[in-house]
Request: fold
Amino acid sequence: MAEIYDIVVIGAGAVGCAVARELSRYNLKVAVLEKGIDVASGTSGRNSAVIHAGFNNKNGSLMAQLCVEGNQGFEKLANELGVPYKKTGKYLIAFDKDDIKVLKGLVEQGRKNGVKGLHMIDECSLKKAVPGVGGIAAMHSPETAIINPFAYVIALAEDAARNGVTFLFDREVKSILFNNDIYLISAGQDIYKAKFIINCAGLYSDKIANMMNINDYKIYPCRGEYFILDEIADEVLSVPIYPAPKKGIGGLGVHLTPTTKGNILIGPSAEYIDDKSDYSCTAKIMDKLFTEAKQLLPTLKRSCIIGSYSGIRSKLASPQEGGFHDFVIHKKNNSIHLIGIESPGLTASVPLARRVIEEIKKSITMHKKTEIIPPKIRKPHFRNLSMKEKSKLISQDSNYGEIVCRCEQITKREILDAIENPLGVVSISGIKYRCGATMGRCQGGYCLGRITDILIKEYNKKPSDITLRGGNSSLYLGFLQEDSYEK
Amino acid sequence: MKNKIVIVGGGPAGMAAALAAKEHCKDKCNVIIIEREHTLGGILNQCIHDGFGLLKFGQMMTGPEYANKYEKLIEKADIKVYTDTMVIDVTNDKKVTFINKNGLSTIKASSIIFATGCRERTRGNIAIPGTRPAGIFTAGVAQNLTNNKNICIGKKVIILGSGDIGLIMARRLTYEGADVIGVIELQKQPGGLQRNISQCLYDFDIPLYLQHTIVEIKGKERLQAVTVAPVDELGNPIENNKFTLECDTLVLSVGLIPENEIAKKSGVLLDDKTNGALTDEYLQTNISGVFVCGNSIKVMDLVDYVSEQGEVAGYNAVAYLFNEKMYEFKKQRSLEMPKGLPENGKFTCILCPNGCSITVEGNNVNGNKCNRGKQFAIQEKKTPKRVLTITILTQKGYTISAKTDRPIDKEIIKEVIKICKKIRASDNCKIGDVILDNIANTNANLIATSKVHL
Reply:
């Protein structure tokens, strides 16, 4: 007889993990079922990593309300979780008079939403604030911030796990039955039982809702492609710059965003596609991205590109309709469905989770735990420390004296910590998102072999067990000749 | 106190610079090499194929052997070597900070020579459209995994780019049993040396798709296929003529970029376009007393040039300290190895960098500049011979490299490889030791070209 969970959360993205963390504060048996082999494997790990201020969203919408709430609480949350966060502010650039009109409208909309500090600036102040930028005027949003989205979702999940939530990866939900007040969830190779389900399945939230006879929603996947530039933010651009939004399918327009590490992201495009799992980058859009980015920042050089990726928005607005559709929190029996959580879902993740808790409380009695295990203090990145601190760390642990990833200056200690992560994720991308190795300009050229060595020699992995992202994504086929490396 | 000359990087450029500096200073300086790897030699240690040293030493060596020649000299000279040590900062006033297992240290140098080599361009740099599956490696990474770690990266391989490393890897992966489906090159002419086209592709009938490129990468988990299209005169893909090649592995040999992140930190000016360090004719940078040599200025075809440049930088670093006349760096030999496609019906001689294009008709041999070339061409027409370079496992399972000490018949290479894969070398095997004599009755001995590094 399988155990019965009080609550099963489906999906371990930003929202699912935020929900799990809120739930972990109560005396409940909670599990998270995730299709991927790690948290943040969908849209949560493939976006612009911006904490939005909330001026883009319609007055009175749930989106606007949760975004503003999320933005205002984020600094504290990030500090609590030890997640890289920077309140950079952002500029929306106007290229003509129509743009200025649009931006003035946004200032107004934002003020009504409760966003602080929005104001227009003229060309002269803009060029002073962001040297090298194009445009004739801009809107400044001082409350906008950037975070490391992987670190954020991982920290939420680890906090939840430390407080009793079970994370189960590689568990794609295939069907759900409701029988005697218990949900039977078929996921991966097993059946899980739950009294309550929270659907945080992002792109697949319509599919999960369908399994529970809710047929009102359809998610239209809308892909956005990005380029990643080298760590030139310090020299080139330290604040996100966006074009004034154009009428269309509801992206924010191709923008330039520095990351907390100092890279610059260009993107995203917005293109409705059919396949929710198609994270391709296309020749057509790659060309377009760079051209549009150059309008914003004419000095940009192509040689700074070190990578590309794409993310997929889970849109409720159909291609015909376009634009934004409000977030949906749909309750039915003992289930809650979060549907259409596209941007600003990352910003709104914790407020969304709080709304979920309020909804659950209407159905079941929940008791707060008397004791909560506080988040583990995150070790700082070695490369950000002073020489003195570095020296001290090496004398305490010689694994700090070995740099494994040269571009990001990641030490062996940090690699080992990433391998031994509390969620038990074993993959190269799991290591990458936890410590930053392979993310730099050589894209793993230097450190992949070293990480492979560590996994084989120190963790007894076979080459074929080493995967990029779990499943069939093996990096290697095996040893060329077997029984090499003395154990 | 003696002046300190700090050399960042212990590859061929750094080693040559250290030796030249030590010799020229007549013991008036401390010469220090800081190397991030476990051993000196840099990228040479994974280049187990031969062809190194023809210009400088007049003999063909494998990468590890070439490196070892310098390593031995450095051991004898009074040069301080830090290995497993990474330089993390160099200041404008020549303070070099480095870390290793023993801690963090700073040396105040009188002169610095950066010999930091280059890195590979990646898929990201050239923005190939498509998915991001496992199975895509740069050629250098593929080489490291194959030659130093005994790891099988794939069985059905496509190589993008016909630079030398790509060609060498085509042969190397074929030796290890992979099916190399093709080499794809955007340009009209291959990028690598003629001898490599001939020995790495033609020897194994590996197709070379000139004026083609990859327009899409397919596969969500592991690579499944690439879509290839011919390109027009301007290099734009002709979409109508594209076709799909199934594969599980893509090896990228799409160029090298000088690596100067540390030099840049110290204030050394770089070329905006190439990322190469800017120097004067004496290899000195905009900071006086700071020199650069090797691939971190401009990527060179042959290691021999890298060594020569290292020597000049080493000499000049000393000259700088004692206000002596510096030497200009110019390639001391004007020879360039021929690149591109070998001419039809002609043999490209591989015995020296001249790379003569030779024809043989009956007893008539034409195009050769020396008698050795004549003999080579006649042999090549009759029964071509090759030196086999390969990896061997030791008894404890470490990987070392080896070669046949003379060319063997091309036809029996497959058979010889099979033997190589069955035997085990001694763990104490030294460079030059015979692992197996008279292998497959070829009269050639299999000798070690590297040793186990613990």
Q: What stands out?
A: Chain B has a mean pLDDT of 94.
